TrEMBL record, chain A:
<feature type="region of interest" description="Disordered">
    <location>
        <begin position="83"/>
        <end position="131"/>
    </location>
</feature>
<feature type="compositionally biased region" description="Low complexity">
    <location>
        <begin position="45"/>
        <end position="56"/>
    </location>
</feature>
<keyword id="KW-0433">Leucine-rich repeat</keyword>
<protein>
    <submittedName>
        <fullName>Uncharacterized protein</fullName>
    </submittedName>
</protein>
<dbReference type="InterPro" id="IPR003591">
    <property type="entry name" value="Leu-rich_rpt_typical-subtyp"/>
</dbReference>
<dbReference type="Pfam" id="PF13855">
    <property type="entry name" value="LRR_8"/>
</dbReference>
<keyword id="KW-0677">Repeat</keyword>
<feature type="region of interest" description="Disordered">
    <location>
        <begin position="1"/>
        <end position="69"/>
    </location>
</feature>
<dbReference type="InterPro" id="IPR032675">
    <property type="entry name" value="LRR_dom_sf"/>
</dbReference>
Automatic annotation (TrEMBL), chain B:
<dbReference type="GO" id="GO:0006511">
    <property type="term" value="P:ubiquitin-dependent protein catabolic process"/>
</dbReference>
<feature type="domain" description="SKP1 component POZ">
    <location>
        <begin position="13"/>
        <end position="72"/>
    </location>
</feature>
<dbReference type="Pfam" id="PF03931">
    <property type="entry name" value="Skp1_POZ"/>
</dbReference>
<keyword id="KW-0539">Nucleus</keyword>
<dbReference type="InterPro" id="IPR039948">
    <property type="entry name" value="ELC1"/>
</dbReference>
<comment type="similarity">
    <text>Belongs to the SKP1 family.</text>
</comment>
<dbReference type="InterPro" id="IPR011333">
    <property type="entry name" value="SKP1/BTB/POZ_sf"/>
</dbReference>
<dbReference type="InterPro" id="IPR016073">
    <property type="entry name" value="Skp1_comp_POZ"/>
</dbReference>
<dbReference type="InterPro" id="IPR001232">
    <property type="entry name" value="SKP1-like"/>
</dbReference>
Amino acid sequence: MEVDEPEPTLPPLPVPDELPAFTTYIPGERKRSRGYLAPPPPSPGMSSSSDPAYFSSDDDPALDNYLQGRRKRRYVGSWFDQVPASSDSVMGDDADPGPSSNPRHKRHLKRQPDSGVWVGQDAATDTDGDIDLPPLAARFPLPYPVVKRIPKLGSEEQRAQSVVLACVDDGREDVDLSQMGLASISDSVLEPLAGLTPIPVVEKDVPFVPRDPILKLFLGNNQLSRFPSVLLDFQHLTVLSIRNNRLTELPPTIAKLKNLTALNIANNRLRHLPGELIDLMESAIGLHTLNIHPNPFFQPKHRQHLLDNEVLQHIYECRTRGRGVDGFLVDQDRGDNFELFTTVLRARTPVQFSNSAGHVLSKFIFPDMAQRLTDSSKQLETENLGSMAIPQTVQQHLESSGESKRSFRPRGPSSLLATAMRVAARSKDAESLPDLLRTDGCPSHLADPLERAVVVNKMGGQHCTVCKRETLCPVTEWIEFREIRRTTVDKKKTAGDGYTASIKHMHISAREDEAWVPFVRRGCSWACTPNVLDPSDKSPLVNGNF
Amino acid sequence: MHATNGNGGASKYITLVSKDGFEFVVLREASLCSDYIRGMLRNNMTEARTGRCELQDINGVILEKVVEYFHYWYKFKDREDVPDMEIPVENCLELVVAADYLGMDSKPH
């Protein structure tokens, strides 16, 4: 018979630190036995069950040996205080395993799936030193993945979050986060609102139809200094109130919120509005409330009406924006009687020409947004709409490339600097890139424009006013002063296909100093500039698209 | 025009050499997109005669992308519908620096 390989044995049972004082109760035994110094025999009594389990050595490695007969070993009790029930067990509970009685030699451990008995025990000290285990493999062979730390929410934000979650749970569409003392609001707080599902009206004889939410968000009376960019993805936002905050700028992508019916941005620190807000006024059909005053808006130095001629006004709009003044008249969605907000251009500042690296070339320089406004710095000079001051370097380039003053379609690709900056601003760790440029030996003058591009990209990007291409580093900027009017249109069909329309305009503010509102415009190349009007030009429909 | 001005039958091509010794042969007119190279070629500099510009600050990988832009610009400079040029993210910051160095900033083309 083959000599049995010494079987891996169980480590001896841990000897309990405190011995049971006088008696040991062994279930299954009737008598109480006295035990003084001698340790009690390890017994099924250690198991918590009063009914000791029997198990056999079926997971014995010798099980696969079919040729020789084998005696099954039987054990009583749970595996961890195994006591062999049959006599041939090599496992012993000898209190003193002398070296002669149980000669151990170095064992070669083989993997035994599910043998269970090798679960480490604190007292398993007998042969630990002898076992040759392969060295542990490095725990993390791959470099640690960079985990972005999620900034902890402040207590105000946590309150806001609970309000938002409660609204989402209840399907309430009025989310009131006003007067919460919020200095900033992270995207993660507002994000759940995207999944808000309202409870549809259930009435008799009305089929159950899920409806789109009519989200109303009130963020008034807080200290927000930045527009929460996550809002720009909420297509169902209908009412947005951010009054009484500290906003200094609205993102141009606000034009995406086409379902807005009311927008309140009064009492902030806005100095100008994005020109895209004009597009929003025209495209948001339901917009009926617009509160933009008071705000410390830029004002023109001279208040002359430089453009009273409706025809010229129309030419300007067509060429600069590609849309006529009365473009809203042909909107079929609005029906026959409607109200909307329209604007009319009153004045324009000179154009600031710069390069993508932020170096200004023109005489006119946009006021620094960080600097505090005094009454004099609030006033911007204006330029006659029939002329445009172009710096000499720009003029040379325009001439050398055969660009006429009149062209409103820039040609050619954007510069390599602008293209590379766009890629950088969109990259994953864009926020750390400007700081890299500030280190020694790098052109640090590129850091600020790159930082600006990163912010603009985070807010959803911006597009050139004239050619509509995306541009993160605009090279021309100017401000248009416009009057915002509430316009009532009453269309009446006449015989045939035509119609007559009566149009009434009403100013939204009665105060003189609030009449002209500054809208900022941006161009992606030096050819993307406002149209220079020629008073002798009498051909309004050159563009032909209206 | 520029290619022959004052250079008496100079070649239509110039050679750009990167810091690590890679050489790129570029159409002279396409390279005029860069103010820096334009300056090198316009005056009576050695580069203008030999048609060989050594760019000591730009390595080969970046210069390859710059050269790609030269030809991209040359091809599309008079077109209105311009496809975007692919720029790998890992090179973008170096390209920003290189573009600034080479004077490839905004111009109305």
